[in-house]
Amino acid sequence: MMLAKPIHPVQISTASRGAVAPANALQRRRPWPTRKELFPYALLVPSLLLICLVIAYPLLSAIGYSLSGGSLLKPGGFVGLKNFIDLFAAKDFYNSIEFSLVFAIGNVLGCYAIGLCLALIMNLDFPGRGACRVAFLLPWIVPGIVSIVCWRWMLADEHALVNQFLSLLGMDPIYFLSDERSAVFAVTMVKIWRSFPFMLLSLLAALQSIDRSLYEAAELDGASRWQDFRYVTMPQIKNLSVVLCMMMTIWSINDFETPFLLTQGGPAKATESMILLAYRYTFVRNNMGLGSAVSLVTLLFLMSLVILILHRQKERA
């Protein structure tokens, strides 16, 4: 009787690898991904095309215009960094930066202070709260051009509505749109009036999302109303507040209609923002290169500001 020859373990492992190897080899050699794997990327194609059409193409065009001369009707040749050199040598550019910063800081501080105070009040339970919410939303609902033209009519001269009201109080008229400082104040106040409802709604939503057990625990510890606000409310809405202030800063610097419709950048260019300066260079002076240069500098300034704010926020987190 013949005994079967034992198989060495190495041979078994070799045979097993030989049986599995073809499947792995076929899997490695597969040249194209399957339709199931490509489907998520196919869903992104329309959005990517829209982004390229709306953002990438205008940005690349602005870069090209900023490096060339000419106007809207007659393109010029390549001039390199000449437009940027001329821009940084112009006094109007620094005046526009100063006003843009004052305008943005005033709008952010004013909107946040008013929005937070009203949000704290709207977070309370009292009769007529719904009607108050609707009333506070009116400045945001009314179209911008309508509200700004109405404000211009109320602030235009000494016979305007606001000055008539001041005269009833025995005060001298204020030339809001003719004096440089008064014009800056008037433009900023109108922007705050138009923008605070967005801050109000966002902060009110944040306040309503805070866990009530935190206030109950603070009450058990004997915390006062101010301590509740300082140690419970503000830490809970801190991250949202940073995002809201950052968004409001971007919107303020990019705001064109408020200073243009109220003062058109005057008097003496005191309310001429960076966006207004780009408009004047491009459409008034017919210099496409300088206008594009201002737009790109504004974009870089805003990007740097956002990166700085997010970096500081990340460090404090």
Automatic annotation (TrEMBL):
Transmembrane segments: 38-60, 101-122, 134-154, 192-210, 231-253, 290-310
Gene3D superfamilies per UniProt: MetI-like (1.10.3720.10)
Assigned keywords, A-Z: Cell membrane, Membrane, Transmembrane, Transmembrane helix, Transport
SUPFAM superfamilies according to UniProt: MetI-like
Domain ABC transmembrane type-1: 97-311
Family designation: Belongs to the binding-protein-dependent transport system permease family.
Protein name stated in the entry: Sugar ABC transporter permease
Species whose genome carries this gene: Verminephrobacter aporrectodeae subsp. tuberculatae
Lineage: Bacteria, Pseudomonadati, Pseudomonadota, Betaproteobacteria, Burkholderiales
